Amino acid sequence: QVLTDVTRDEFVTFMHILASLQSLQTVSGRQQLVDLVVEQAELSKPFQADDSTCVDRLMDCVRQAMPLFSRNVQSTKFVAYVCVAVLPCLTAVTSSVEERDVKLEVLKLLAEMSPYCGDVDSTCLANLYTCLLEYMPVPPAEVENEENGSLQPGEPQLQFSYVECLMFAFHQIARKGTDFLTAEENADRLKDFRTRLQYFARGLQVYIKQLRLSLQGKTGEELKTTENKIKVVALRTTSNINVLIKDLFHNPPSYKSVVGLSWKPTTVSTLSLVFTEPKTLETVPTKRMAVRPKHNERSLYHPPGGKYSERVG
Fold first, then answer.
1. Do 115 and 21 fall within a single domain?
2. Could you tell me if 38 and 75 lie in one domain?
3. 115 and 171, same structural domain?
4. CA-to-CA distance for 168 and 190, rounded, in angstroms?
5. Do the domain assignments include residue 308?
6. How far is CA 311 from CA 3, 117, 120, 274, 279, in A?
7. Which of 54, 58, 233, 267 is most buried, most CB within 10 Å of its CB?
8. Three-state SS at 250
9. Is this structure's pTM higher than 0.85?
10. Is 201 among the domain residues?
11. Around Cβ 25, how many Cβ atoms within 10 Å?
12. What is the distance between the alpha carbons of residues 204 and 283, in angstroms, rounded to a whole number?
């Protein structure tokens, strides 16, 4: 009853106090807190994308609930609400703070919640997939510059940060509904998706190559500059997408790979990220990489050849 009429700061303070209580440290206690946040978020009401107060309230509530989510305390209600109510009007989402990419913030929260999501209905997954496709263009008639193999001017700009969030969330949620891509009646959907994945992977490889070339040779201290930190995060982002694409490009799509979101803390060193091929970062043992340095060097500097590569990694 205390939370029925509170300010934003008061809500955050109350949640911190409640979360610290010993009686609420159990699974049932954390579930009670999540239910409390769900009520505060007003998920039963329509989402108003042009109302910054509504947007901020939803994001604040998700942030308060995030530490409570686990395998036993699921994020399903929040994920379903974002997919069904928010994603269809994502481009209209507004913020009370200028120069704030609120759309990306929403997608980051969705990605962070998705590993704790239970079963959702087909509408939720379909909306997520549709939103992902908006940032994964179909290949144009000509995708390669004949002289240097780079993307031609005028081609769609690839929004890697958005794609990382959406593809990660799709990778997490679609594993519970694999028929969405593999059912016989969805054959055309899978064919189109694989075409987009393959095209996106080509642009991804070009960008990864450029990032590595700009970071190689830098010392640990040089990598700490603002400009290089941005490049390192971009390299983490593109490496994550590369891993996810390789999974989803399998026939049938696979959902086995594990990646750490680029904006979250990582145990992988910056130098290791710069000098390690993305596809081996998560899967190939260090000893094997040390034995075969020449193979890694070749793969670092040569994006997939041909108009479309037979492989996306």
1. yes
2. yes
3. no
4. 17
5. no
6. 53, 31, 32, 22, 12
7. 58
8. coil
9. no
10. yes
11. 10
12. 19
Which residue bears the tokens 């686990």? Answer: 70
The answer to whether residue 9 sits within a structural domain is: yes
Task: Please classify residue 83 by burial: count the beta carbons closer than 10 Å to its beta carbon, then call 0-12 exposed, 13-18 middle and 19+ buried.
Answer: buried
Which structure tokens are listed for 93? 């989402």
Residues 164, 209 contacting (CB under 8 angstroms): no
For residue 33, which of 42, 24, 41 has the smallest C-alpha distance? 24
Mean pLDDT of the chain: 82
Residues 5, 49, single domain; the answer is yes
Q: Which residue has the tokens 């036993």?
A: 72
Q: Domain boundary residue among 220, 245, 264?
A: 264
Is residue 247 included in any domain, yes or no?
A: yes
Residue 264 in 3-state DSSP? Answer: coil
- pLDDT at residue 20, as a whole number: 77
Render pLDDT for 46-76 as a digit per residue (tens, 0 to 9): 999 999 999 999 999 999 999 999 999 999 9
Residue 208 and residue 312 in contact, taking contact as beta carbons nearer than 8 Å: no
Among candidate residues 179, 42, 197, 176, the one with its CA nearest the CA of residue 116: 176
Structure tokens at 181: 């891509």
Query: CB under 8 Å, gap of 24 or more: what pairs does 261-264 form?
Result: 261/108, 261/111, 261/112, 261/164, 261/165, 261/168, 262/161, 262/164, 262/233, 262/236, 262/237, 263/108, 263/233, 264/112
Question: Residue 194 CB: number of other CB atoms within 10 A?
Answer: 18
Q: How many domains does the chain have?
A: 2
Q: By residue range, what is the domain housing residue 225?
A: 121-141+153-264
Residue 165 shares a structural domain with residue 135 = yes
